């Protein structure tokens, strides 16, 4: 239409920017979580999505039942040995780019159930980006970890794949207080020594 | 402290003349009626009790007395074995529950299934099989229910470790 | 033993799954439908006969990751067109080993463990465990503790039923219900958070009483909840109960007769929906339920609608109960003053060395419970929640078993789904209101 004439042919206002920022902006603002409710935390995850806490403020109210349409897996609850292959399968079915929030101590470490039945930390099965503490984390904590993840997406790179074995290794260090800025704590990558 | 200790009376197995119902010794534990049939008489007893109005089977579970052989509340005529299958019945008319404890030996952990009397025991018996390895004779579909099918061992047995592992953090296996 | 079954392995549970039709004989089919009730030999033969060559049926998986299976329930359904011929629930995807962990925790720590079973009604789990421990200890808890327990569990019943209404509405397409249900539930949860410190998994009811007295201003908080709810319930009636679409989706769907419910061991709203007036609060009362006045809500047809209506009306009954409790709750101790089971009050720890040692010992070693075994049950929002506890005289339970009502109620699914449409399956699953944490424990 107006390319031949240069800029004066444009009828509307416009912005310029680099593509990467736009992509990151778009990814951050329409991140769709997969419904992966497992246990108690799933109830709080639903509460986060429901009226009082209203996840749609962050463009995230659309919980997708199909992993192929989801960007974010919130592992909400304890992962049993029987569930672990299912979890991985659902994760594998998600399209890149994808992120994982490990919600609650059971998903993060096995929590109080250090026994035969549970996977002691979902990061043994899928790479985790953000760990949300609590048993169960209350909706504010989940929102905080989601905002942390948003910040990661906004400041991250869009094309590089993560190294094998690496989640982002970000732990949500404390509960949000008032309108405190999101702080991201980056601990050194620690690799466990199998015994 | 001693005054408090005395305030809690010891519950002793009463050594008096045995009470029986349908041939099974009857004891009372904290006011609750417990029957102790033999392994062979277990199914028949439940059937007779069903005619008596105990039409509802609330629960079938088990306990492993490997590390605590001298257990509470057994009448003298019953030989304690390693496993005990516990069934809990309910009577709507009498508004009361009744408990049945069956001794099941370690070497031959088989007991009759209640499935054909109370179809609702299907899942519970599968759970006991899964957790204790006790086989229910006559159960239509005795497979594991809670653990994966290829799991080894029966987790609630006392000689099965809790499975506690040292907490460690490591990355996910392989590339994303 | 502790190895993780790594990804890549197929999600197959072998013999736990529904077998293909061609592989089974009439006898096997009979047994398989036996997780349903026993059907007649003839009916089984008829079903099996049309089987082998018949390619028109298919077996599909629903779950374990499915939005309307309430967590991680997995159903295998054999379909002919849209009709469900056979189905089988496969559970265990949330097996947490709580009964094993329970043998490793002291009696005082026990409620922390069991409260995570039925996470929609955590206080009931704590209650039944505490009641069982107290029965073994033979301690009598003070009246105020009893009434606080009643208050909290009735509020919990309200919250749990709101969760049901929210998800039931969501599953059947009344999407606004999830927003309304959660709005109301949050009212109650905020009170719980104020009282117990947590929105869920409270560990508030403990052997010997409750963890803390009710907070200042609790009466006003509860009254505010009670005043807000009736109008909202009225809204639900308008939104769903009288609405033709809702009725068409629920009435006559997933019917279970009284005989079937009893045979399959169903309790709670499922049993009451089929017309059996059985409520432990009335029939085998615990706490102080003899002293309060309430109705047992009973259905007629045993269908999805009846189960919905029962839960809706049980909220109303619970509101009435809470009002009575507010009037009658006595003053006094909120936990038993028995040095054996109760830690000394905070103030005394500061001034007395013995109290400090005592406090330390109670929380590290726990208290010893006399030998014995006991079964105690309460009426949870899902049915008879029982606890079978065996003590060997030490400070930890020798065997701790929870009879989860959801676990038993799930067995009614194949029976209710048979012959129905697959769209109705969602309604039926939702009406059973299974909480998988309690199913798998």
- Radius of gyration of chain C from the CA trace? 23 Å
**Can you give the helix content of chain A as a percent range?**
25-40%
Biggest interface, chains and residue tallies: B-C, 60 and 66 residues
**Could you please say which CATH topology of chain A applies here?**
Rossmann fold
Largest sheet of chain A: 5 strands, parallel
Within the largest sheet of chain C, what's the order of strands?
A: 1-2-3
Tell me about the biggest sheet of chain C? 3 strands, antiparallel
β-strand percent of chain C reads 5-15%
Overall shape of chain A? elongated
Q: What is the total number of structural domains of chain C?
A: 2
Which percent range fits the helix content of chain C? Answer: 40-55%
Q: What does this molecule look like?
A:
The complex is a heterotrimer of chains A (195), B (176) and C (441). By secondary structure, chain A is of the alpha/beta class. Chain A contains 5 helices and 5 strands, in the order H-E-H-E-H-E-H-E-H-E. Chain A has helices spanning 19-29, 40-49, 84-93, 104-109, 139-155, and strands spanning 33-34, 72-76, 99-103, 130-132, 170-171. In chain A, strand 2 (72-76), helix 3 and strand 3 (99-103) form a beta-alpha-beta unit. Chain A is elongated and about 70 Å long. Mean pLDDT of chain A is 75; it is low at 163-195. Chain B has helices at 2-7, 42-51, 122-132, and strands at 19-21, 24-29, 32-35, 56-64, 83-91, 96-104, 110-112, 135-137. Chain B has a 6-stranded mixed β-sheet. A two-stranded parallel sheet of chain B has the order 7-8. Chain B is globular and about 45 Å long. The model of chain B is unreliable at 1-14 and 168-172 (pLDDT under 50). Chain C has 441 residues and is mainly alpha-helical. Chain C has 19 helices and 8 strands. In chain C, helix 6 (143-171) packs antiparallel against helix 7, helix 7 (176-196) packs antiparallel against helix 8 and helix 13 packs parallel to helix 18 (422-432). The longest helix of chain C has 29 residues, at 143-171. In chain C, 56% of the residues are buried. Chains in contact: A-B, A-C, B-C. Chains B and C meet through helix 1, strand 4, strand 6 and helix 3 of B and helix 1, helix 3, helix 5, strand 6 and strand 7 of C.
